[in-house]
Fold this sequence. Notes:
Low-confidence stretches: 14-25, 330-347
Helix content: 10-25%
Keywords: Glycoprotein, Leucine-rich repeat, Repeat, Signal
Pfam family, one: LRR_6
Strand content: 5-15%
Radius of gyration: 28 Å
Largest sheet: 13 strands, parallel
Signal peptide: 1-25
Oligomer: single chain
Protein name: Leucine-rich alpha-2-glycoprotein
Domain LRRCT: 278-328
Strand order of the largest sheet: 1-2-3-4-5-6-7-8-9-10-11-13-15
Structural class: alpha/beta
Mean pLDDT: 86
Number of helices: 4
Amino acid sequence: MMPPGQILSALLLLLLLLLLVPCRAAPCTPHPNATRFVCTEPTLSTFPSGLPPTTLAISVEFTALATIVPTALAGLPHLQELHLSSNRLAALPGTLLRPVPTLRVLDLTNNLLPTLPADIFATTRHLQHLVLRENRLRALKPAWFRHLPRLLWLDLGDNALTEVPPEVFHPLGSLRSLDLSHNRLVSLAPDALAGLGALERLDLEGNRLGTLSSATFVPVPALRLLFLQDNQLQALPAGIFVPLRHLSVLDLARNRLRALELPPRPPGPALDLDISGNPWDCGCQLVALLRRVTPRLTATRDTVCASPPRHRGQEVAAVVQAGDTGCEPRGDVQHLPDTETRGLVSS
C-alpha cells in the first residue's frame, strides 16, 4: 500500500498536469443572443446546433463539413445570410431553406455539389445573392430559378456547365449580374438570356465559345459590362452588339478574331475595349472602325496585326493612330480630326 505522503504527492502531480493541459472545448460554440455566428474551425464536421433565434447571419467556412441535416436551420426565422463556402458539401436537403424565408444571401462557393434539389429555393423569394461558384454543376434546372424574382446576383462560375437551356433564367427579371465564366460552354442559344431585361454585367470568360448568334444580346439591352475573353471566337455576327447601347466595357481578349464590328455609340464616355491576343486583320476596314468609334483601346504587347503583310507584327493602336497609307484616301479614314483618336490608349 502506498504511504499517505506518496498518495498526496501523486494527487498534486495529477492536478498540476490537468491545469497545464488546456481543456478542448467544442469548436465554435454559439453565443446566446448573438446575431452573427462565425466558424472557420478546420476540424468541424457537423453543422453547429443551438444557434439562438436572434441569428441574422451564419458563416461556417473552411471546415470539414460534408453533410448537413434538413433541420439544420430550424428555429432561425430571421436568418438573412448563410455562408457555407470552402467546405465538403456534396449534397443539400431539399427542405434545408424552408425555415428561413427571409434569406437574402446564400454562398456555397467551393464545395462538391454536382446538382441541387429542384425545389430548394421554393420558399426563398427574398433571395438577392446566390453564389454557386467552384462546384461540380453540370446542368442548370429551370426549377431552381422559378421562385427568385428578387435575385440580383447569380454566380455560376467555375463549374462544368456545357449549355444554358433556353429561357432558363426567364424568371430572373431583377438580375443585375450573371457570372458563367470558366465553364464548358461551346455555344449560347439565341434565347439563353431571355427574361434578363435588367442585366448589367455578363461574364462569359474562359469558356469554349466558338460562335454566337446575332440575337444573343437582344434580351439584355441594359448590359454595361460584357466579358468574352479567353474563348474560341473566330467571328462575330453582323450587328451582334447593336442592342447594347449602354455598353461601357467589352473584353474580347485572347480569342481568334480577325475582324470587328461595333455599333455607332451615343454621346457619353468612350468604350473600354480590350482586343489583345487576337490575329487581327489590320486592313482599311478595322482601322476606319477603330478611329471612328473612338474606343479606349486596351492595347498590350500581344495586340498586334496578323495581316495584311504591310502591318504584320505591328501594334494595332500604332496602326490606327498612324492611319493606313495603303488605303484609298477617304475622309473617314485618312483625314479624321485629332479628336477622333484621343480615346485610343496603348498600355
